[in-house]
Amino acid sequence: MERSFESWEKEVIRCIRCGSCQNVCPVFRELQAESTVARGRVKLIRGVITKDLSLTEGFISKMSLCLMCKACVANCPSGVKVDKLVEAARKEIVDQKGLSPLKKLIFRLILKNRWVFDTGMSTGRILQKLVFRPGPGGQGMLPRMPLGIDQRRLLSPLAPKPLKTMYPQVVKVLNPRLRVVFFTGCMINYIYTDTGRAVINVLNRLGIDVVIPKLQNCCGTPVRMNGDYETAREMARANIDVLLKEKADGVVVACGTCGLALKEEYAELLQDEPRYAERAKLLGKMVKDFTELVVSLGDFKENIGELPLKVTYHDPCHLVRGLKVKEQPREIIKQIPGVKFLEMKNPDTCCGSGGSFSLTHYELSMKINNRKVEDILQTGAEVVVTGCSACRMHILDGLHRQEVGMGVMHTAQLLEMAYDAKEGIPKGVNSFSQS
Amino acid sequence: MKPEIIQELIKIVGEENLYTTLEDLYCYTYDASFLKADLKDLAGVAVYPGTVEEISMILTLANREKIPVVPRGAGTNVSGGSVSIGDCIVLVLKRMNKILEIDKKNLIAVVEPGVITGQFQREVEQLGLFYPPDPASLAVSTMGGNVAECAGGPRGVKYGVTRDYILGLEVVLPTGEIMTTGGRTIKNVTGYDMTKLFTGSEGTLCVITKIIVKLIPLPEAKSTMMAVFSEMEQASETVSEIIAGGLVPCSLELLDNIYIKNIEEYAKVGLPVEAGAVLLIEVDGDSEILSKQIGKVEEICRRLGAVQIRVATTKEEAEDLWLARRSAFASVSRVKPTIIGEDATVPRSQIPVAVRRIQEIAAKYNIIIAILGHAGDGNLHATILTDEMDREEAARVEKAIDEIFVLTVELGGSLSGEHGIGRAKSKFITLQTGKIGLEIQRKIKHALDPNNILNPGVMFGA
Fold first, then answer.
1. Which CATH number fits domain B99-217: 3.30.465.10, 2.40.50.140, 3.40.190.10, 3.40.30.10?
2. So what's the ipTM on this one?
């Protein structure tokens, strides 16, 4: 039996409307209307359940105004799962009203079908020059024409080749001590291949065989968060099959969002299918963020070269509050000789990206981002390190808008640079891809 | 609400500071109280003015048209004083959020009503100054709301409540006039004390637009301890003894057995689950005298039979002790989905009787009532753990709450220590004010608000 929307009433009544969420909700901070904070959303959802309200355009738009950053959940004295409630509401909207034609096309034709996605992405690489112009200083690119996304939006271009085509299915080392599957996720595969390369290089250096299954798909989170559970389930089942087939010691991710999907959300999504629910749990136990895996191998500290850099770290929402990974990236950064780690104010406040939120609510998402950029600049750091490609793109966009030429990279890239420094491979802060 | 009125309001505050859609207005039908409002209570409009002049224009308009106005800050009110009441104007003061002045020489500050209490405290503390009132919601509550409700908090035992720190106000009267009260001096006896009248008036007499607060020097250090007692009576007696001994802790928090059991189960902080009561005691002041003070408190706790005493010697240890108190709410919210926090306050010496009688009431109606309190000032928070979807139990809960109110007044206490009367307790007000007392308060209300437009229904009922 699939869970009915009405059954969430048990969860909504747990909200005592104390208002603590006002202190942490990034959307509320900008908009200030009571309907834009967690307790307002919960009240609206309750209103639909009790039939005071219905699935009006107004309700749909309020439900879209959530970054899914989980800050309210972590801060809620009663532990109300606001993220699950908003997701349930979005699912109810899709169940009752259907998907918009554009979302249908993206979710059901492209994201779900790996070959369409791959073909589209490789054609897209050529076509993107027609619709995007290069950003200033050769960093990123800006839309040439209205695409339904803001023309000021700095997007990172597609990589010349997807990561999966750059490597063999298994990247082997001599006498491996572990064999792990690398779930790349879409952004690392198609855009930030430099992050993917760093993950592979670092793991190899630590004596780990890295398996990159060609048949892995998008994790499905963008689809699920927009309420299309049917497609999300199909994608989950496909990934579970592909990842479990490899008989590896673990599954490593370099993205908190993908990681959380694999670790916990697949099991919830598939709870009504006993066989897959079990397999999802099995997979869940194997999932580790890149930094978790690295830190668990105490010897990662050996052979680190010196990097004379001032570094700050941004906590991605789904990494810090989803996978609960907070200390490991900092430990890695602090272990690098020469690096001066400068903690920013509110490092775990959302950068405003929220996945597709930044495309549909660009103005608002940049306002949220401006606060993040300000906190970053206050530290005086030269490089922002983070653990999520979406955060990386969004923060880079924010820095670009404020005309700050600062680099943003994944933790894996910083560590790769440090290992390279030891081996005398020249790689200054400006040589890594900033786009 | 008539479209012409909305048009006039748009002219005053601007379109971007006004909300009229169903979904937006639905979110002003609640505050943090247990009071239920539904679609028939939906406001006609919510406005976010930015200046005192705009507020004056809004109230003039509302008074002319006899439209009810419900002032609102962060909506953390726990007595139903800021919920919408049908076709009214919800007046949200959050845009007026500037700290206008912190005057170190005169130890005062001037703030707008939308300033967040906790942020204001951080600002003054950076300058070595202190604004003590600490309601549980201080991370989000507004100064204006705190003044309107006369908010309290754990530090009340030593430092008093909001009222004790308000020197003067600028307000807009229900008829639209702008008025100032009090001033920038500690001593001020010119005319009636309108500042005190407006502080705690729950949005029924005026809209507060500027607040002059008194500050005090920030105490140098704090020292924290926890004492566990097998009986509630011992804990209560300890409280009385500590205060009789001339020691005034800055917090004196009491947890009953239901809380102790649940906190231990939830947070594993090392409390003996069979204990009858836990006292969490904090003293502050000059660092030299602190250890002497905490030593005296410890001695009293021991003499009165504490079975376990933990004194924090470092900041981290103090944090550990506070963890029990801070986990209190989360721990009970896992027992039942609906938590109702009551606010009955009795003279300190009556705490053991009050606790026992509340437990009897809980047994009579077969519901769970846990007690947590600011024991130093007799402010007990009886916490009812229930499930609002269980209609039959909800009816029993309502009866139990009624009995607690009667009990409180019987013991010489107050219907509300710090939460306010609002709409939730208005039917009980005569229990405490008496007929004449209520009549006089009504006359004051009528003198200032002849058309009864400002927060009608609050305090005096409909």
1. 3.30.465.10
2. 0.93
